[in-house]
Amino acid sequence: MTRTLNNCPAPAKLNLFLHVTGRRPDGYHLLQTVFQLVDFNDLLHFELRDDDQIRRSTEIPGVPEESDLIVRAARLLQGALRQKNSALAGTPLGANIAIEKNLPMGGGLGGGSSDAATTLMALNHLWQGGLSRQELMDLGLQLGADVPFFLFGRNAFAEGIGESLQKLDTPGLWFVIIQPGVTIPTEIIFSSSELTRSTKPVKMTDFSIGTKKLFGKNDLEAVAVSKFPEVAEAIKWLGNYGEARMTGSGACVFCAFTEEHDADKVLKLVPSQWKAWKAKAMQEHPLAGLLES
Ligand SMILES: C[C@](O)(CO)[C@H](O)COP(=O)(O)OP(=O)(O)OC[C@H]1O[C@@H](n2ccc(N)nc2=O)[C@H](O)[C@@H]1O
Ligand SMILES: Nc1ncnc2c1ncn2[C@@H]1O[C@H](COP(=O)(O)OP(=O)(O)OP(=O)(O)O)[C@@H](O)[C@H]1O
């Protein structure tokens, strides 16, 4: 029996566009977005324990163990398996989990959500839980609106609050991503009275590979720009080299390039007060093979 699963990537996502089309009675917003996986990631390491404890062996500054999405994902899966899979009665379902955190927090790159999805995939495998992709996606949605996408494992057109997903092929682009030096809590943007909540819904057939529409507007950007001048400044700077926009609820902004050397050139020019990275579009989650289709 496998006891460890090391070097499990938790990749970032970019929202190539993001429209807010309405609001549910519970306050959550209805969205339409294209999720793009990129090869910029956190790295998680898992080791089985001979008891039922979930232990985090690395600290994430500012994130106490109880609210860490990695620990919460592991506990959620443990509870679901105890309820569903009687074959596991008497088997310890514990793990030590270590993380190398590379993705900026509150960056709109979905880092915490991706960590949670990687945890669900890795522990379902190590604990031999046997949950299907759909079952893990249903569990993941309890942790956050972005989690199901990472479990879906492919680039996608998303609707609902982000959980209704259709596979979408996207171009093999290179991205320059800038962190403008602020952290933006998602709920500040969604709760703003300035937010436009009535963008007309589009159909998935309205856009296809390579069309401009794949890179439409992000409705959350105007709110973020008005509250955080740092975001406006980064969009303005990156906009000198292509179409720059914000991902998710910010703060990171990105620009797409067809050629890697163009991304390299721009990356070298990024002012030193900002952190910046180059990332390549991925078509599939690197752990997709752990789950059946
Ligand atoms: C902005 C996106 O990153 C786009 O991909 C996501 O919609 C946010 O996903 P997330 O970080 O997983 O969000 P959650 O942890 O579920 O929600 C954080 C907060 O954002 C608001 N929220 C989030 C998603 C959504 N569709 N509508 C919302 O209004 C809610 O106030 C919620 O309390
Ligand atoms: N493992 C984790 N990694 C990062 N953040 C975590 C984690 N667990 C809990 N959090 C909390 O979640 C918040 C959002 O973190 P995350 O990195 O997912 O933001 P984000 O990139 O803006 O996400 P999104 O695009 O989904 O809005 C953090 O500020 C932190 O308080």
TrEMBL record:
Residues that, per the record, bind ATP: P104, M105, G106, G107, G108, L109, G110, G111, G112, S113, S114
UniProt KW keywords: ATP-binding, Isoprene biosynthesis, Kinase, Nucleotide-binding, Transferase
EC code(s) of this entry: 2.7.1.148
PANTHER family named in the record: 4-DIPHOSPHOCYTIDYL-2-C-METHYL-D-ERYTHRITOL KINASE, CHLOROPLASTIC (PTHR43527)
Functional note: Catalyzes the phosphorylation of the position 2 hydroxy group of 4-diphosphocytidyl-2C-methyl-D-erythritol.
Top-level lineage group: Bacteria
Domain GHMP kinase N-terminal intervals: 69-154
Catalytic activity: 4-CDP-2-C-methyl-D-erythritol + ATP = 4-CDP-2-C-methyl-D-erythritol 2-phosphate + ADP + H(+)
Organism: Collimonas pratensis
Domain GHMP kinase C-terminal, first and last residues per copy: 216-274
Pathway(s) this gene product operates in, as recorded in its UniProt entry: Isoprenoid biosynthesis; isopentenyl diphosphate biosynthesis via DXP pathway; isopentenyl diphosphate from 1-deoxy-D-xylulose 5-phosphate: step 3/6
Protein name listed in UniProt: 4-diphosphocytidyl-2-C-methyl-D-erythritol kinase
EC category: transferase
GO molecular function, one term: kinase activity
Keyword Translocase: no
Annotated catalytic residues: K13, D146
Protein family: Belongs to the GHMP kinase family. IspE subfamily.
Gene label: ispE
InterPro entries, per database record: GHMP_kinase_C_dom (IPR013750), GHMP_kinase_C_sf (IPR036554), GHMP_kinase_N_dom (IPR006204), IspE (IPR004424), Ribosomal_Su5_D2-typ_SF (IPR020568), Ribsml_uS5_D2-typ_fold_subgr (IPR014721)
Pfam families the record matches: GHMP_kinases_C (PF08544), GHMP_kinases_N (PF00288)
